[in-house]
Amino acid sequence: MQWHRTDAQTLLLRLLRSPCSGVPHDVAAAYAKLALRSGTLLEAIERGDLALPASERDCVLRFARNIRRVRSLDAQPESALRDGIAGAFELAAFEPALEAAEEAGHETELRLTEPQPLEEPAGVAPWQRHFSASALNAYAECRRKWFYRYACGAIEDRGSAASAYGSAFHLALEDFHGEYPRPVAADEAAMRRRIRECITWAFETHRNGFETRVELELQTRRAQRTAQRYVDWLLVQEKEAPFEVLGREVPAELELDGRPFVGYIDRLDRDELSGGVAVIDYKTGNISATPAEYVEKIRTFRDFQLPFYYWARTAAGDRVTRLVLIPLKDALLDVRPVALQVGRNVSAGELERSRERMIALSAELASGETRSFETTRDAAACVYCAYALACASKPPSEAQRFAS
Ligand code: SF4
């Protein structure tokens, strides 16, 4: 009745998910989720936006037909409207329950079920699957975020243009270094041409990650400019310390105290003079500006990525001498890597402590004893958090703090 009066989409979705709709629960939930994005439930159903088995499709189409029929009914007299709704949704089958509710003195438009007994408080189920440096980074940044993303799988993160930019750039460089494992000045023109082609192809491959064709075009141009600066840097690097690319997207697998850790290393290089191996990570977002800043993150257990790669490659038999982040975000700046020389910028002891911390955190997550997941105190971490809407106890932003 209320939906007929207001035509509110939330009431329609509630009706869809109620037992009266005749639509199986999971199908109703899927269409409700779709409608929250598109805002047009009935049209989505009638277009058949979800591929369903015939019996479920019939249920959902019947629901849409009934809704259209109810919508066409006159609101007055109310009793006729009520009968019309009851007829469309065959509510007679629900009558015994309605009567019982009325006898018990409950309102009949909305009936509450019996409250369920409270569950005994317990820890979150032990984490059984593999660990990764990015999961531990999320845990270090905000425990609640880890809980939403990894323990609940709370919502589907549809990704953003920034993540599509990162994926496309990584793909382009993987392809590029397949052809140019040893960049040399004599190949400069060919390298510049080839990297342009790689960027165009990779961004076209990831075109669905961008909302509009214009955004795709703008981001592709931005990447083209950055890629040329990347070639500038390769040529300087080749002159100062020639290197060979040993691998791209190299799987990193490691057992820490019996628990499996996995990841992928963007690039592995061998220094041609010393024979040492460098672990390279491309970064298309914000990163530490200096080696000292990045080492501080390692020391304070806020970043585990390069230490994890260090231990994975060391276990694989490599002599890892450099850990390098390559910033690829800003098309207006020269590419200036943040490079840590093992033993000089970052000590073996610091890497060992990072390893111990990874073991301790993974043990904590695998224990099943963790009962609460604190929110971060750093409001900056919430700005791009996919769970910000659901997260009731996030810290106030700077603007909110000043306003209060
Ligand atoms: S909104 Fe902030 S506090 Fe909440 S989960 Fe995300 S990062 Fe953590």
Concise overview:
The chain has about 400 residues and is of the alpha+beta class.
Strand content: 5-15%
Order of helices and strands: HHHHHHHHHHHHEEEHHEEHH
Average pLDDT for all residues: 87
Shape: elongated
Tell me about the biggest sheet?
A: 5 strands, mixed
Number of strands: 5
Q: Figure out the total of helices.
A: 16
Number of domains: 2
Residue runs with pLDDT of under 50 for 5 or more positions: none
Fold-level CATH name of the largest domain: Lambda Exonuclease, Chain A
- Regarding CATH, which class of the largest domain? Alpha Beta
- Side by side, the strands of the main sheet go 1-2-3-4-5
Which class do the helix and strand fractions yield?
alpha+beta
Q: Which architecture of the largest domain would the CATH scheme give at its second level?
A: Alpha-Beta Complex
Bound molecules: iron/sulfur cluster
C-alpha end-to-end distance: 42 Å
What is the percent of helical residues? 40-55%
- Rg of Cα set: 28 Å
Description:
The chain has 404 residues and is of the alpha+beta class. The protein folds into two domains: 2-103, no CATH class; 161-360, Lambda Exonuclease, Chain A. It contains 16 helices and five strands. The chain has helices at residues 2-6, 9-17, 25-38, 41-47, 54-71, 78-88, 95-103, 133-141, 143-152, 161-179, 188-205, 213-240, 291-299, 305-315, 348-367, 398-403, and strands at residues 243-256, 259-271, 277-283, 320-327, 338-341. The protein has a five-stranded mixed beta sheet. Strand 2 (259-271) and strand 3 (277-283) form a beta hairpin. Helix 5 packs antiparallel against helix 6 and helix 8 (133-141) crosses helix 9 (143-152). The longest helix is centred in the middle third of the chain and has 28 residues, at 213-240.
